[in-house]
Design a protein that fits this description.
Layout (H helix, E strand, L loop, with lengths): L3 E4 L4 H11 L2 E3 L1 E5 L5 E5 L7 E5 L5 H17 L4 E6 L19 H11 L2 E5 L17 E4 L2 H11 L3 E5 L5 H11 L3 E3 L1 E6 L2 E5 L10 E9 L3 H12 L6 E7 L5 H7 L4 E5 L7 E3 L2 H15 L1
Bound molecules: ribose-5-phosphate (R5P).
């Protein structure tokens, strides 16, 4: 029997693409809220005897987790063989250290909760900075796939004479991988974060590349402060207007508009978080990840 994909609200477009890549069916859910705010979940397509896959990006995890947990539990209750999760953006990965005494390292309990909720996980470029791999915190099979090749190919097809720019040392891994595919040079700047919305980019070395279009690449664009600060430094160095590429279009309210105001040439993101800036399609990449992971979990 074909696998059965279910989209949590907002994930319908990617789910349809994945179903086509995987030759899977799409099941229907009814998810709504009661007047008191509690969530109502109903499966309109029976998962009985089938492998179920939930598609739920986790850019707004606090709103999504409970509907996700209830749906996974429901599908098992209704006889699904197993329930996997495709979370193209994986939340809470940045809170991986106790920066101040008494702080919660939320990446760990979040991983524990997801591991109790579903049988396996496929995600895109999780923010692995102080951790080497997902297995350090996830106890289920958890496979990250990487958007670098998709971004590199998009650059090859769409832009000439570029220099890739990583906003900070954490972005080096993505920028180098994209640069290798795009066959372009890259530089990495240094970032000092003083607070949630207070970021300074130091030592811009960008003026060496004035004749090229700078292409900023980062895994996450959230408040967009990292991108905006970097763009400002490139401007001061008389660089051309930058193209900003983010894997995950998390964008807090107003952030996309602020970034546009910074006079960037373009803002391009992948479709791991639905957003108007999504241009690079990762469905084939994610589908390949699902196939790889499911071969190991049959
Ligand atoms: C940081 O560790 C990440 O790689 C991104 O640079 C960061 O999440 C971007 O955040 P924001 O858009 O809020 O500056």
């Amino acid at each position: 029997m074909k696998r059965l994909l279910y989209a949590l609200p907002g994930n319908e477009a990617l789910t349809a693409k994945l179903a086509s890549e995987l030759d899977a069916d799409v099941g229907e859910l009814e998810i709504r809220h009661f007047p008191d705010g509690e969530v109502y979940v109903r499966a309109l397509t029976s998962p009985e005897g089938r492998r179920a896959i939930l598609v739920a990006t986790l850019a707004r995890p606090d709103q999504v987790f409970l509907p996700l947990a209830f749906t996974a539990d429901l599908l098992r209750d209704l006889g699904a063989v197993d329930v996997g999760l495709v979370a193209p953006y994986l939340a809470y990965m940045r809170q991986d250290q106790r920066f101040k005494p008494g702080e919660a390292i939320t990446s760990v309990p979040f991983a524990r909760m997801i591991s109790k909720t579903v049988n396996w996980l496929v995600t895109v470029d999780p923010h692995l900075h102080r951790r080497q791999n997902l297995a350090e915190i996830y106890s289920i099979p958890a496979l990250p796939v990487h958007a670098a090749a998709s971004i590199g190919r998009w650059l090859n097809d769409n832009l000439d004479n570029i220099v890739l720019v990583g906003p900070d040392s954490e972005s080096r891994q993505w920028v180098k991988a994209v640069a290798d595919i795009a066959g372009a040079p890259f530089i990495v700047l240094e970032k000092i974060r003083r607070g949630d919305r207070d970021v300074e980019i130091s030592v811009p070395d960008a003026d060496r590349w004035r004749d090229r279009t700078p292409v900023l690449v980062d895994d996450i664009i959230s408040t967009a402060r990292t991108m905006i600060e970097t763009v400002e430094h490139l401007k001061q160095a008389d660089m051309k207007p930058a193209v900003c590429i983010g894997v995950h279009a998390v964008f807090t309210p107003g952030a996309f508009e602020e970034l546009k105001k910074a006079a960037v040439a373009d803002i391009v993101t992948c479709n791991s978080v639905p957003h108007a800036s999504n241009i690079i399609d990762l469905s084939a990449l994610i589908a390949a990840g699902i196939e790889t992971l499911q071969i190991g979990t049959r």
